[in-house]
Amino acid sequence: MNKLSVCILFGGISPEHEVSLRSAESVLNNIDQSKYNVFPVGITKEGKWDPVRRKDYSMILLASAAVS
User: What is the tally of structural domains in the chain?
Assistant: First the structure.
């Protein structure tokens, strides 16, 4: 069976930026990667798109806090 490809977008120019990061972290840590090719893409508070290239998604909040 072929895997479906899924892009998870999170962050963005919004007061809800951190909420989006937490939601994405939960989705990314729980999605069945045997069924889906997952392509996470973070969007900074300034609007820069940044593909996530690692598999440990628990660091999304920490990485974002360091950039902010």
Answer: 1
